[in-house]
Amino acid sequence: MNFLDFEKPIAELEGKIEELRHLSDSDEINIAEEINRLQIKVDRVLRATYGKLTPWQKTQVARHPDRPHMSDYVQRLVSDFTPLAGDRCFGEDKAIIGGLGRFRGQSVMVIGHEKGRDTESRVRHNFGMARPEGYRKARRLMKMADHFRVPVITLVDTAGAYPGVDAEARGQAEAIARSIETCLDIRVPLIAAIIGEGGSGGAIAMAAGNAVLMMEHAVYSVISPEGCASILWRSGDAAKEAAEALRLTAQDLQRLGVIDDIVPEPLGAAHRSPEIAIQTLGDHVERALKPLMLMEGGVLRARRREKFLDMGRSGLS
Fold this sequence. Notes:
By secondary structure, the chain is of the alpha/beta class. It folds into 2 domains: about 50 residues; about 260 residues, 2-enoyl-CoA Hydratase, Chain A, domain 1. It is built from 14 helices and 8 strands. Strands 1, 2, 3, 4, 5, 6, 7 and 8 form an 8-stranded mixed β-sheet that branches. Strand 5, helix 9 and strand 6 form a beta-alpha-beta unit. The mean pLDDT is about 90.
């Protein structure tokens, strides 16, 4: 397991547990009791550590390489998943994956950012940073879902939209704006879940939903802490201070009314128990989706629009 800087005490304890487990039975040492004692201590330290994470530490957790990715959620929660590619305008963008499937018996359109897990897949998926064709694909799939009256589930996990020259040349800002417009225009339920990083317009392009869920240790912000620090402090070294100022944690955002529900993560965060984290999110998505399925399309759209307009009005008051 990859340990974060603030997890060093935990790493040392788990290292001792592994050493004991590898001891030979011939040593005639009863190690079960010692392992149990150390495991209780690990759980206690984990609970204390993760109960008081700073915004910068939560950012590190949200970026953890072992954290479940979009493809992991799809694999375990969506059956008969059929990926759909291309924006019918320029090409395919593998930073965003989308397709039809069945979520706990309900036909759904699932769209989300995929970062990739190893070097090869990260390069292939461009680290989850989509170009304009990715957001145009998302828009196409949302319109398809609207046409066939299929609810949409989006899984957001991106540091932000790709800022390269080629993306700007193909209309990155317009593609993101159109994707947000489509989120607010469709007449089917839209559930958005922030599963890792929710960065800038690259995230909101697919997160303007009837219900916005957020994993307990995910982050959601207008800009990354490093980007904010480089603008305000002229130095990336101030990322910790920027993270504090951005109010990017799930707890802050729920208080501000930006998200609707916090999805609890297992002890030690999602990367320690991916299966539990995935199933927990599935339960929360199902709970949020059921009442929305009973609403008429015009009501769904009106409530979704009003929800985000209210955020703007409260910000001006």
